[in-house]
Design a protein that fits this description.
14% helix; 5-stranded mixed sheet; alpha+beta; single chain; binds ligand MTE; Sulfite Oxidase, Chain A, domain 2; binds molybdenum atom
Length: 223
Amino acid sequence: MATPNPSLVERKERWARKMAAKEKPPVRPGNPPLRLGRSTERLPPGQHLTQGFPILDLGVKPEIALKDWRLEIGGLVENPKTFTWEEFNALPQFEDVSDFHCVTTWSKFDCRWRGVAFFTLAEIVKPKPEVHHVLFSSYDGYSSNVRIEDALDDDALVATQFDGKPITRDHGGPARVIIPKLYAWKGAKFVRAIDFVAEDKPGFWEVRGYSNTADPWTEDRFG
Ligand SMILES: Nc1nc2c(c(=O)[nH]1)N[C@H]1C(S)=C(S)[C@@H](COP(=O)(O)O)O[C@H]1N2
Ligand SMILES: [Mo]
């Protein structure tokens, strides 16, 4: 039998505290101070800093006209919803500055993303208590999977802007997922669908040997 997920409540409380504070430091320390016993460096182990913004994809950059773009959110939810571009952009907007860590060892600091907080989307579709994972599917055939608590972290979003401008096709526009505390492959570019599920299902890189959990701070690169 599916068990209710207590972390949903915990994340919701954390989100409420953050929203109550109304602001946070413009740059978050990369390493959450609560993670005792780990280094206090902002750069995760085995990573180097890049000033540019490398582009990683499957060799396909799908071209999606905004009039045809849809984001389909479903699975084990009370209120499945498919957004058009206009509908999606009418949702409350969320901006967050975070660091970006690719498993191929480059990191980029201070990425300013804007879009819709994942939390806001969850509030709309209302995941059922038995949901433990979230699956993302993209217009290029890519997919990724994360634990619900990672998707509901207070800096996770479906971004439509980078650095004040629409996200380019190179970087996954019209919309891409950003989950800053996990390696960047977990964040699907060109996102098309989000499914809330009880059972985990490995995504594109997870079936090819990458770690399921993808924590940069423990060099959790391969499964
Ligand atoms: N749809 C899709 N999303 C994807 C990928 C991809 O190939 N296709 N690559 C992932 C990887 S490995 C990384 S590091 C980041 C790269 O994002 P960037 O190209 O904007 O640097 O996107 C992730 N999301
Ligand atoms: Mo990556």
